[in-house]
């Protein structure tokens, strides 16, 4: 069909040029009266000749139209033979468009879907019509699905190419895309919000502290603006529920509630900040709630004043965390923690203590501090260290501060320490909480009793 149409175009162009030349020659001879041409031509002859030309042109146009219609009919009949007329109806019902191209990517035939949607691409180059489809030609030599998506007249089509047949399949997926986007926008996002330092600022049952009231007003106004449902859990904490669309709005705003609360309480002795844990991209809200609480724990362990987002199956995301972590001094809590550590030390058969790889002075000091505690209670404690994985200044200070006998009594290599571990061994990790950064990671896998003492903001990966 494509070759015949191109031939018709060439013939039509030649006829038009021929007629224009005849008219031009006639006009030149008539108006210049060469050889007495003007005197020899009668006006009725001019009118008769013009009528004959118009009649012949009409006959030619009619013949060409019938020829094209016949070609289209033959093509449709051929397509019907190939795929069946009933199947074509099924394609139309399923909103599937078909286009057949030649080896030069010129469209030879389309089914009724294109005509019904006023998309005329017959004899057009399909790649010039939609350049995005070129990726399918590029993928033709690659394995896997040859599909892409395009937008045409406000509708989305998923396009697949059968390269051997030159068949392009256009599947209208507009309704599916709209449903998918709506479902994604309405997916639940669960969170937990906690006001940091609330108990230190609001004493007893006095829940009407001026700063606390201002902070809560900021929280409620922010939740109202971004469509977040808040429910109070305790005086200083709230559960959060919103959809993914509103979460994206908060994310685009960089969770400005963190900065707003910090500004409200700035200038006070103990500033109020927020720690927020959020969880998304999981259909079970109970699981999302668990992830949100874990994210909140991490946000608080990193010093608060930040948002920690748990994305199921992906790494956690952190926002904020601009203020310095506030040290909370609680003598009762300190005593309880100290008593717990002493109990563990006393009930253990032996104690191992280690810091991080490339051990520095504060890790060494923390190890020696644990060693001194164990000595106080007559418990054997060895420091696990590889001097090759120790800073040069720390190594020099360590080796010069103890005699050879003391050095051997304090230090133990990771390999030797691994053999001393039993179910009643206590492993104390200091100055680090990330498993991959400790001096001897294998000890963590074998030990059943582990204590972590660290001052760094906790990351997503931490020792359990």
Offer a few descriptive terms.
Beta-Lactamase; 464 residues; Alpha-Beta Plaits; six-stranded mixed beta sheet; 19 helices; 4 domains; 20% strand; five-stranded antiparallel beta sheet; alpha/beta
Could you outline the blueprint of secondary structure elements for this entry?
Blueprint: H1 2-32, H2 37-40, H3 43-83, H4 85-93, E1 96-101, E2 107-110, H5 112-116, H6 126-129, H7 134-138, E3 147-152, E4 155-162, E5 167-172, H8 174-185, E6 188-196, H9 198-201, H10 210-225, E7 229-234, E8 237-243, H11 244-252, H12 257-264, E9 273-280, H13 285-301, E10 306-311, E11 317-320, H14 331-347, E12 350-354, H15 361-376, E13 381-384, H16 392-401, H17 404-410, E14 411-412, H18 414-420, E15 425-430, H19 441-446, E16 449-453
Parallel strand pairs: 9-10, 12-13, 12-15, 13-14, 15-16
Antiparallel strand pairs: 1-2, 1-5, 3-4, 4-5, 6-8, 6-9, 7-8, 10-11
Helix pairs in contact: 3-4, 10-12
Describe the overall structure.
This protein is an alpha/beta fold. It folds into four domains: 2-82, no CATH class; 94-177, PAS domain (Beta-Lactamase), CATH 3.30.450; 191-320, Alpha-Beta Plaits (2-Layer Sandwich); 331-453, inorganic pyrophosphatase (n-terminal core). It contains 19 helices and 16 strands. The protein has helices at 2-32, 37-40, 43-83, 85-93, 112-116, 126-129, 134-138, 174-185, 198-201, 210-225, 244-252, 257-264, 285-301, 331-347, 361-376, 392-401, 404-410, 414-420, 441-446; strands spanning 96-101, 107-110, 147-152, 155-162, 167-172, 188-196, 229-234, 237-243, 273-280, 306-311, 317-320, 350-354, 381-384, 411-412, 425-430, 449-453. The protein has a six-stranded mixed β-sheet with strand order 7-8-6-9-10-11. It has a five-stranded antiparallel β-sheet with strand order 2-1-5-4-3. It has a five-stranded parallel β-sheet with strand order 14-13-12-15-16. Helix 3 packs across helix 4 (85-93) and helix 10 runs antiparallel to helix 12 (257-264).
């Amino acid at each position: 069909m494509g070759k015949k149409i191109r031939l018709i175009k060439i013939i039509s162009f030649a006829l038009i040029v021929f007629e224009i030349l005849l008219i031009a020659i006639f006009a030149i001879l008539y108006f210049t009266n060469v050889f007495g041409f003007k005197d020899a031509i009668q006006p009725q002859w001019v009118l008769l000749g013009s009528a004959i030309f118009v009649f012949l042109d009409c006959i030619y146009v009619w013949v060409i139209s019938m020829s094209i219609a016949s070609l289209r009919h033959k093509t449709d009949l051929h397509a019907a033979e190939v795929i069946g007329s009933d199947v074509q109806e099924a394609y139309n019902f399923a909103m599937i468009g078909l286009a057949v191209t030649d080896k030069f990517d010129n469209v030879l035939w389309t089914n009724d879907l294109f005509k019904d949607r006023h998309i005329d691409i017959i004899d057009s180059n399909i790649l010039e019509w939609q350049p995005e489809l070129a990726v399918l030609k590029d993928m033709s030599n690659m394995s896997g699905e040859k599909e892409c998506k395009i937008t045409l007249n406000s509708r989305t089509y998923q396009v697949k190419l059968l390269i051997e047949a030159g068949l392009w399949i256009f599947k209208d997926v507009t309704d599916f895309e709209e449903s998918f986007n709506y479902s994604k926008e309405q997916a639940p996002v669960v969170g937990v919000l906690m006001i940091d330092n609330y108990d230190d600022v609001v004493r007893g049952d006095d829940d009407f502290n001026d700063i606390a009231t201002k902070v809560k007003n900021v929280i409620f106004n922010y939740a109202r603006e971004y469509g977040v449902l808040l429910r109070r859990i305790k005086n200083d904490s709230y559960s959060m529920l919103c959809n993914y669309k509103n979460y994206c709005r908060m994310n685009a705003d960089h969770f400005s509630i963190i900065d707003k609360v910090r500004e409200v309480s700035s200038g006070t002795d103990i500033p109020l900040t927020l720690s927020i844990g959020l969880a998304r991209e999981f259909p079970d809200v109970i699981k999302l709630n668990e992830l949100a609480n874990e994210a909140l724990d991490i946000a608080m362990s990193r010093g608060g004043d930040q948002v920690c987002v748990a994305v199921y199956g992906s790494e956690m995301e952190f926002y904020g965390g601009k203020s310095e972590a506030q040290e909370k001094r609680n003598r009762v809590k300190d005593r309880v923690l100290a008593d717990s550590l002493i109990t563990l030390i006393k009930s253990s058969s032996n104690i191992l203590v280690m810091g991080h790889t490339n051990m520095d002075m504060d890790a060494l000091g923390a190890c020696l501090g644990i060693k001194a505690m164990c000595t106080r209670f007559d418990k054997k404690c060895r420091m696990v260290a590889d001097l090759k994985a120790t800073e040069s200044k720390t190594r020099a200070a360590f080796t010069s501060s103890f005699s050879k006998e003391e050095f051997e009594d304090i230090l133990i290599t990771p390999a030797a320490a691994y053999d001393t571990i039993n179910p009643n061994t206590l492993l104390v990790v200091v100055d680090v909480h990330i498993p991959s950064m400790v001096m001897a990671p294998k000890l963590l896998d074998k030990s059943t009793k582990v204590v972590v003492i660290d001052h760094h903001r906790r990351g997503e990966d931490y020792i359990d």
